[in-house]
Amino acid sequence: VRLVESGGGLVQPGGSLRLSCAASGFTFSNYDMNWFRQAPGKGREFVAKISPRGSTTTYITSVKGRFTISRDNAKNTVYLQMNSLEPEDTAVYYCEGRSNFGQGTQVTVSS
Predict the structure, then answer these.
(1) In what side-by-side order are the strands of the sheet with 77-82?
(2) pLDDT bracket for residue 14 (50, 70, 90)
(3) pLDDT cut 90: percent of the chain above it
(4) Which of 80, 73, 91 is nearest to 17 (CA)?
(5) Nearest Cα to 97, choosing from 68, 76, 74, 72?
(6) Pairwise CA distance, residues 35 & 52, whole Å
(7) pLDDT score, position 94
(8) What is the mean pLDDT of the chain?
């Protein structure tokens, strides 16, 4: 299993970023995919989940209405569109699938 995240960076409050996670080594379309994040000095927390066909999504309360998880099973890729970013969203973001995590991508929200 290999998961490779990309798309992180430095953005001002109120800005947007789109994270991508390219998956390989397993049958991507059979599995839920998740995004987690870990802020400095804190534990890793769940952010969003999408079902295998993309019909069901789940979010933590703090990102509802701002973040959107989606997937393209033809490309074995899951996305996290993040809008109206806040300094509290600063963290390393990880995708998770089949109980495996990628290396993460840093998101920093700061003016």
Answers:
(1) 2-6, 17-24, 77-82, 67-72
(2) very high
(3) 100
(4) 80
(5) 76
(6) 14
(7) 98
(8) 97
CB environment 84-106: b (16+ within 10 A), e (fewer): ebeeebbbbbbbbbeeeebebbe
Report how far residue 47's alpha carbon sits from residue 96's, in angstroms, rounded to the nearest whole number: 11
Contacts with 93 (C-beta within 8 Å, 6 or more apart), sequence order = 5, 8, 19, 35, 36, 37, 47, 80, 104, 105, 106, 107
Please give the DSSP secondary-structure letter assigned to residue 111. Answer: -
- The helix/strand/coil state of 28 is helix
Q: How many CB atoms lie within 10 A of CB 4?
A: 14
pLDDT digits (tens, 9 = 90+) for 44-83: 999 999 999 999 999 999 999 999 999 999 999 999 999 9
Q: Are 49 and 64 in contact (CB under 8 A)?
A: no
Q: For residue 110, give the nearest of 79, 83, 88, 81 by alpha carbon.
A: 88
